[in-house]
Amino acid sequence: MATIQEVAKKAGVSVATVSRVLNKHTVVNAKTRAKVEKVIKELNYEPSMLGRNLRNSESKLLLVVIPSIANPFYTEIVDGIQETAISNGYHILLCETNSNPEREATYFGMIKNRMADGVICMDPAVNKQKLFELAEKYPIVQCSDYDKGSNIPYVTIDSELAAYHAVRHLIKIGHKRIAMINTDERILYARERRAGYERALKEFGIPLDEELIFHTMDIDFNDGQQAMRSLLEVKDVPTAAFAVSDVLAIGALKEINNNGLKVPNDIALIGFDKLSFSNMTYPALTTVAQPMFKMGSLAAAMLIQKIQGKKVENIVLEHELVLREST
Amino acid sequence: MATIQEVAKKAGVSVATVSRVLNKHTVVNAKTRAKVEKVIKELNYEPSMLGRNLRNSESKLLLVVIPSIANPFYTEIVDGIQETAISNGYHILLCETNSNPEREATYFGMIKNRMADGVICMDPAVNKQKLFELAEKYPIVQCSDYDKGSNIPYVTIDSELAAYHAVRHLIKIGHKRIAMINTDERILYARERRAGYERALKEFGIPLDEELIFHTMDIDFNDGQQAMRSLLEVKDVPTAAFAVSDVLAIGALKEINNNGLKVPNDIALIGFDKLSFSNMTYPALTTVAQPMFKMGSLAAAMLIQKIQGKKVENIVLEHELVLREST
DNA sequence: CTGAAAGCGCTAACAG
DNA sequence: CTGTTAGCGCTTTCAG
Fold it and tell me: What residue stretches are annotated with the HTH lacI-type domain (chains A, B) (predicted)?
């Protein structure tokens, strides 16, 4: 492992000069530069990021905190983050909390100990108090999930409006008994989507029936399946269901099929997110598209701006109703 | 940002002593330790990993190279890697190549420049020549994909045998026209799974029909769908299909459904991997389970062993045929 | 345009 | 048990 010292010695220059040719931008005599570059090649020299990072007190790493990598929603966001990060000379440190507070503490430690230059937090279950404290001293942005009161910048969508659009669609095609498969309402977007659901019902004079609202513990196929199992036992069975995630909708679809019922004739179904596999179910799932990749990409750009000390503005992206076969 | 210097000064000890209380294991007088720990709390001191890493010439980061994070197969492996990495004080640096050689070069650079202590390579399309060169100087392990000739340690399954089991199952339930949805045969597992497919056919005296073997470009739902579209146009339509990935099988299933055909009656279908989604299709997919999480976990453990300079042995894990509704 | 020297924050001999 | 010191590999003044 050649070091900058060895390159300097062999090229007959000082380490400062080698550093200069490494870091472009500074003026170096063409001949000197050529000589140094030649030696760099000969020695197969690669500058050590450890040295550089200590000196510059930066790590060029972005912490990405998600609940679970198994959820494809985050997968597509991470994809977007990655693209922007890399094109700006950063890399991603992926962190799953799995709703484990200890892990969360570990990750928050990583920004304090300089392992990461900033964090993109996408875990709705994170300890908000600690997050806010952290955000006062370090660059942090939120993505998808966010907190209204805080001054942590975020990129997200208008969940209330998106849910309203989804439910209105269901109503317009004739449904009145519309179930909602929601997740834990401690999560902001769950509350917002419920508000959108209620607004649509109210607007069309449909009474709210608490029996039709199911809250899942988590966001997994099984949770969706369980929700539908429950909903099918309600005396006046719903004719349509709105799930706040395609993952839940797909689980629900499975349960409907298992009961010998047909989508959309017996029950219409609408999901959320437009995950790639929502188009592979049979029937294909109608859903509310979220621009996940773009969201991730913008969140990364926003974070990098913050790291550079620039001001940033919150971003609310557009959603889109994608009509397919399940409604 | 307090440094070790400030802690030392305020506690009235030397930096060496502070370092000692930080790094346990060394003997420090109980009183001194208490005093130092008190100051550490007061100052909210967090040791800088940048300094520590430079000094120890390590980064405590593991490079994980995958083709695409969108493929749920890798997702579950990464989950396993993460668990083991974290419990050993490492973190993962996630890298998608997207079959982009430039990115690949960037990632390989990261081990050379000390940003990572080792790499778990899962990209079958990686430049093997470069990979082998790298493996001579740095700790590298392969996971799922591997290379027979090389001396890069790996953890994988017996793909030939797994494919043989899958196809034999199809034959035993009465099928003779069995299609194979394979991926690019430049990839080792694709060749191995084809060998297993052929072995099963031969064993039961079924002639090989090249028309029934489709090669996809990539591993995406669309590729599976396209494969089945093609297969349905063969004059003597197959009555069963073996796909080398659940993702491909799910795409194929979609196409079968689109054509008004029924699985398993018109066409039986078997996938590979046992992705969580494979149980949510209708009908649920019969598949060959791979222990993805364990694979990732073992690969991480293996890599950490290598980093510590220990010898490691290749690992071949068991697969399992999971009978569900699609056959 | 180039070199000498300081120092980022930490750990690990080596003495005492 | 504790302090002194050197140095990990790099960038960046400051002189020249």
Answer: 2-56
Q: Are B129 and B165 members of one domain?
A: no
Could you tell me the pTM of the whole model? Answer: 0.94
Is pLDDT above 90 for B26? no
Our measurement of CA B25 to C1' D14, in angstroms, reads: 43
Same domain, A208 and A307: no
- Residue B202 domain-assigned (yes or no): yes
Nearest CB among B50, B112, B254 relative to A114 is that of B50
Higher per-residue pLDDT: A23 or B253: B253
Q: How many CB atoms lie within 10 A of CB B94?
A: 23
Q: How far apart are CA A278 and CA A266, in angstroms?
A: 19
Based on the domain organization, do B234 and B300 belong to the same domain?
no
- As a whole number, mean pLDDT of residues A38-65 equals 95
Question: Quick one: pLDDT band at residue A28, thresholds 50, 70, 90?
Answer: confident
The predicted model gives A7-22 an average pLDDT of 93
Strand D, nucleotides < 7 Å from a protein CB: these are 1-13
A324 within some domain: no
* Closest-approach nucleotide to residue A19, Cα vs C1': D11
Task: Say if residue A91's pLDDT is above 90.
Answer: yes
Q: How far is CA A9 from CA A15, A71, A147, in A?
A: 8, 52, 55
